[in-house]
Amino acid sequence: MITGRNVLLGIVLSIFVGFSLYSILDSTPASSKQRNIGKQSEDIVEIDPWITEVIPAGGSLYGIMENNGIPLREIATITYQFGDYIDVSTIQPGDTLKIRLSDDRQKIEAMTFVQEPTVRHQFKVQGDSLVYIQEKLPTRMETKLITGNLEGTLSESLASKGLPNSDVQQIINALESKIDFRRRAKSEDEYQILADLRYFEGKLISGGKILYVQYKGKSTGTHELFRYEDPNPKSVLTGLYGPEGKIVRSSSGGGVGYPLAHIHVRSKFGRRIDPVYGNWAMHQGVDYKASHGTPVMAVANGTVTEAHYAGGWGNQIRIKHPSGLITQYAHLSSIGVKRGQSVKKGQIIGRVGSTGKSTGPHLHFGLMKNGQWIDPSNLKMVASEELTVIQLKDFNIQKEAILTKLRSFLSPPTVSSHP
Description:
Elements: H1 2-25, H2 30-43, E1 50-54, H3 61-67, H4 72-85, E2 96-101, E3 108-116, E4 119-126, E5 129-136, E6 140-149, H5 154-160, H6 165-176, H7 181-184, E7 190-200, E8 203-217, E9 221-228, E10 239-241, E11 256-257, E12 265-267, E13 270-273, E14 280-283, E15 285-289, E16 295-297, E17 302-309, E18 315-320, E19 326-335, E20 342-343, E21 348-352, E22 362-369, E23 372-374, E24 381-382, H8 389-410
Parallel strand pairs: 11-24
Antiparallel strand pairs: 1-2, 2-3, 3-4, 4-5, 6-7, 7-8, 8-9, 9-10, 12-15, 13-14, 15-22, 16-21, 17-18, 17-20, 18-19, 19-21, 19-22, 22-23
Helix pairs in contact: 3-4, 5-6
């Protein structure tokens, strides 16, 4: 019995000593334990479901998506629909693309595309279609008169005044059709620019409007240009015109016309993922967005060399021009000319369709030189038609409004000194 009691006493003492040691070792206050639990929670990083990429120099949407493991067929489907909403010729290095993928990373669920800080293009994939929403942040427009003398080149002079590059280039392109700057421009020449400038958070950004341009010099003479704005934002007619409403023409022979009245580039020339086959392929022209039946115009005088159905090209017209260039108009719904026929710039030759290898109505416009396809975007295009009587009336109304604004800057109202 004594031995049993000793054993039992030993067990009780062992348990007591064990609890005592645990209490001593685990002496951390309860509040500290709570802080440690909180610290562990803070260390848990929430994973962002969005992939964010910036378009690099020489990069493309195709390359960015492929680098993220998205299947080529998915890229082809999404990017071609993307071109319905975004003119892909405006995509520049520095633009931002955000993509949200499905759990298996095989499908795109949503995208956000940002070209400038004030506009966000939101896309949501529903089935085989894209749902598009545009978000705009408020900007401020301010009309300003910019004057000065030529210092260096006109480009340098205008840039020194803070004008965005796109505005500078528009002014130069228009004036170069009137003035030989290499031979006739002098340092004492004067210029006036009336512009609606666009500001965001106090900073000047692109997207404003050049309303009026005057350039004056002893050797160049005086030249004026006025803005005409067509109601359709994609119209090729919107731009700078002479005082009589004459379309500004290139000094090298009138320039090449546009094949459509409204221009929106859906897919550019070059290597792309084919929207039909879903593989990398060379795109030998430019695809313009247009609805079925839209008139298609010859971009320059020439002779029709082909006007027939041509397999994957569908209904196709090819025109040979005096310069030796050949232009191609493909996937047409109808053909309005015959082989051997002479055509004039701006003449309607057919209508937009979706014949041949095509995912929907659009115009494929190709350009061939010495038997090789070249990039049509290298052509310097101008509006191929003169303003109609109605458009000319609108131009004169807009011109008078511009002159009224100009006079308010040149002759500001006097302030009376009387109380």
